[in-house]
Amino acid sequence: MNTSPRSRSPDQAPLRWLAWHPNGFLINPSTATPWFSTPPGACGWLPLDICAGRPRLTHDLPAWLALLDPTTAYPNLAPLRQLLSEAPAADLPQLARAQQLGHWWQAEQYCSHCGQATVLHPAELAFTCINQHPLRYPTFNPCVMVLITRGQHCLLARHHRSRAGQFSCLAGFIEAGENAEETVHREVLEEVGLRIDSLRYAASQNWPFASQLMLGFYANYAAGDIQLDTAELQEARWFSAETLREPNLPYLPAKGTLSRRLIDGFVDSCVDGDKPAAL
């Protein structure tokens, strides 16, 4: 087992391993999944748990992350986006966590205060250095997502970075000094020039591209005409709930994403005659 000071070894042999590389997860040729029953050769290991050192059980089996050498080329890698559409739903939280821990492990090799090499804290999932500067925990970037509704219609936008011309909810990162509600109002005004009211929280989602915590909201249209921020968006328009009920719409986000959950919640509320509620 690895004795690297930037790694933690399990007390007993786990039965499930994910192997992460900056280019993707190693696929087990025997099962065609990213899970292994024995650890692949790696340069570090981390627990896939919330309480460091006490592996959380998944399918009644302890799960750990093997960190592959980033300088080595592996032929059997699958990016996380591909796995999100293929893996069982029960595996998605650990795949997302593994991705974020892998990037964190790779990024925090040296202390930002003194430049010394980092070591894993003996009791916490955090990096420190020999000079005992502040611990470096895995971090995430908070952002907001909002679906604006106007009667039986909702506003969806297509971003320049959108894949396959997909329409989605408006979203943006929380700036220093802002709370989430202020960010929603600012992002809506900046991106489409609209005023909103009746802002209400719906749900959140951890999103590993890269290390985001997304806070989802509904809001009612209040005033204004769409004035597109062309630096961010290609298009924004109103969609009726009836249109969004059509099966297999190719331009909507995938099932399971926060954006799709907000959209589906709105469509369902139009059937029930209520405002969309918390998801």
Could you report the average pLDDT, rounded to the nearest whole number? Answer: 86
Give, in order, the helices and strands.
EEEEEEEHHEEEEEHEEEHH
Q: Count the helices. How many? A: 5
Write down the overall geometry.
globular
Descriptive account of the structure:
This protein is α+β, with helices and mostly antiparallel strands. The chain has five helices and 15 strands. The strands form three sheets. Strands 1, 2, 3, 4, 5, 6 and 7 form a seven-stranded mixed beta sheet that branches. Strands 10, 11, 12, 13, 14 and 15 form a six-stranded mixed beta sheet that branches. β13 and β14 form a beta hairpin. The longest helix is centred in the middle third of the chain and has 16 residues. The two termini are 43 Å apart.
Features:
279 residues, alpha+beta, seven-stranded mixed beta sheet, six-stranded mixed beta sheet, globular
How would the blueprint of this fold be written?
Blueprint: E1 16-21, E2 24-26, E3 35-36, E4 44-47, E5 57-58, E6 61-67, E7 77-78, H1 80-84, H2 92-107, E8 119-120, E9 127-128, E10 141-150, E11 153-159, E12 170-173, H3 180-192, E13 195-207, E14 212-223, E15 233-240, H4 241-244, H5 258-272
Parallel strand pairs: 1-6, 10-14
Antiparallel strand pairs: 1-2, 1-3, 2-7, 4-6, 5-6, 8-9, 10-11, 10-12, 11-15, 13-14
